[in-house]
Structures are given as structure tokens and as C-alpha cells.
From TrEMBL:
Residues 18-138 form the Glycosyltransferase 2-like domain. It comes from the Bacteria. Transmembrane segments: none annotated. This is Glycosyltransferase 2-like domain-containing protein. Pfam families: Glycos_transf_2. The lineage of its organism: Bacteria, Candidatus Uhriibacteriota. It comes from Candidatus Uhrbacteria bacterium CG_4_9_14_3_um_filter_50_9.
Length: 283
């Protein structure tokens, strides 16, 4: 039996947190998150992963990693054909129905907590009115309420609000989980923020060598708290390229090949940096 640090140290303590994530051709990211959680989570927890019909080799990689982790449930949605935000939101609606713990966390496949004891720290931020805490949106979206990338909920309050995670109109910024802000605030609840910095302009964090990475910092907590790679299964970095580099990526055959190579390299560098951060807690 393979157990995490939090589960290993508290074998007779009830599970406090369920961690939910959706995989779609992102096994390496999800495996990185599972590895990080094993080393930094304080309280007993479980993980539920839904696979939205990824490529067989991607799902096989994820399934193999999880095989000996008895606190992880992973299942594949065979024949699932939805894609993008609608697929993500639809599957999140299914996952939250499985939650039976006092708290739950939703993580994007290419996002992870990085702070030692993240669960205990965030639970202490919740109170009678603050019922959710998570990562801040990028400029251009509402920045006064947590966004979906890394987020912790008090389960009881969440289940009273009947939130639908499916997007409605992405052009109107009604993407995955857009209902949360209005429904929480209408019920008299607030959400606490883990503040965003992006490596396009912020050059003081551990991911400063990579382009377009979101770093998240909890006020009053010095080390980085979470990160989001932000390109997921596509690995596309083209949206961050400018000038001649942008046109180079558009050259038929050559461009996509160069772009994919860059994406794979940056993906591995992001994963390596996550692990390097987590390993510092053991020194």
C-alpha cells in the first residue's frame, strides 16, 4: 500500500479533503500533481480523477501511476465526445457529486499546490462568511473572487448553492465555473484570493525562466503557493510569441514541429521546477 505523507501520518484520522481533477491527454501533469500532493499535504485526503477519453497511451500512463495509490480513484469516460470548456465543466459537475468530505479542492490538470501544508493553511482562511479560497483570475476577468485553476471549498456551503460548472458564453467571460462568483456573493459568502503573478512581467519567482506561467502567492505566506502551466494538453506557446518568432511557428510542417518541441521542453521544465520547490521542504 502506497500512501501520501498526510495519509501516512494520520492513518486513523478521518479524511478531510477530496481533490478533484479532470484529465484529457495531460497524464504527465496530473502525475506531477499527485507527486507534489504526496509530499506537501498535511491531513488525510483522497483524489478522484476523471479521464475525458484521452488517447489510450495517455490514460494508460496515468492508470499505471495510480495503480498502487489506494487513496486515488481514476476512471475513464469511454466514448465521451465533448471537448474544451464544456467537457471540463460537465465532468466537474459529475465529480463534485462524489464528494463526501468536509472540504474539497479542484485543480486544473496542469496546475498544482506547491506550499507545504497547503490544506491546513487554506482551511484556516475559511470562516462563517468565507467559504472558498483559490487562485485569482488574470486581468480582464473578475479578480475579486477565486478562479478554477487551484481552489478549496467548504463542502457544506458549496452544496447549498447548486452551482453548474458548465460554461454558458465564453465570449462574455462565462467560462467554466462562472456561476460561482454570483451564487456565493448572492448567498452572503465571500471568496479569499491567492494572488496571481505572471512570468510575462513578474521575474522574481521560481518559474521566471518560462513564458506565460501563472504563479500564485497567498498574502502573508512567503513561498509560492501554487502554479498553473496554462497550456494544458495542447502545449501551445504561440499565443506568447511575438514578431518573427510568431511567424516562424506558422510555417507549414516546420512551425507546428518547432512549437510542439518548445511546448514539450517547457512542460518538462515546469514539472521539474515544481518538484524542485517541493523538495526544498525536505532539506
Amino acid at each position: 500500500m502506497d500512501v501520501s505523507e498526510g495519509n501516512k501520518n494520520n492513518m486513523n484520522t478521518p479524511i478531510k479533503t477530496t481533490i478533484l481533477t479532470v484529465n484529457y491527454n495531460s497524464a504527465a501533469f496530473v502525475i506531477n500533481t499527485l507527486w507534489c500532493l504526496e509530499h506537501i499535504t498535511m491531513h488525510p485526503y483522497k483524489v478522484i480523477i476523471a479521464d475525458n477519453n484521452s488517447k489510450p497511451e495517455d490514460y494508460a500512463e496515468l492508470e499505471a501511476y495510480c495503480a498502487d495509490l489506494d487513496y486515488v480513484e481514476v476512471y475513464r469516460k469511454e466514448g465521451f465526445t465533448l471537448r474544451g470548456s464544456m467537457a471540463h465543466g460537465t465532468t466537474l459537475n459529475e465529480l463534485v457529486k462524489k464528494v463526501d468530505t468536509p472540504y474539497f479542492s479542484i485543480l486544473d490538470a496542469d496546475a498544482t499546490w506547491l506550499a507545504k501544508g497547503w490544506d491546513e493553511i487554506l482551511m484556516k482562511q475559511l470562516d462563517d462568511t468565507t467559504k472558498v479560497i483559490g487562485t485569482q483570475a488574470s486581468p480582464g476577468k473578475p479578480q475579486d473572487f477565486p478562479l478554477m485553476f487551484c481552489i478549496l471549498f467548504e463542502t457544506e456551503a458549496f452544496k447549498k448553492l447548486d452551482i453548474d460548472f458548465r460554461p454558458k458564453d465564453i465570449s462574455e467571460k462565462q467560462d467554466t465555473g462562472f456561476e460561482m462568483r454570483e451564487k456565493y456573493q448572492s448567498a452572503g459568502y465571500s471568496g479569499a484570493l491567492i494572488e496571481i503573478q505572471n512570468t510575462r512581467i513578474f521575474k522574481k519567482g521560481p518559474f521566471r525562466h518560462l513564458v506565460g506561467i501563472a504563479e500564485y502567492y497567498l498574502p502573508g505566506h512567503q513561498p509560492i503557493f501554487a502554479s498553473h502551466f496554462g497550456r494544458g494538453s495542447s502545449l501551445g506557446a504561440n499565443k506568447y510569441a511575438k514578431g518573427l518568432v510568431k511567424w516562424l511557428y506558422k510555417i507549414p510542417l516546420l512551425g507546428p514541429s518547432l512549437l510542439n518541441a518548445k511546448g514539450r521542453r517547457e512542460k518538462q521544465e515546469w514539472i521539474d521546477t515544481c518538484k524542485r520547490i517541493v523538495r526544498t521542504y525536505d532539506t
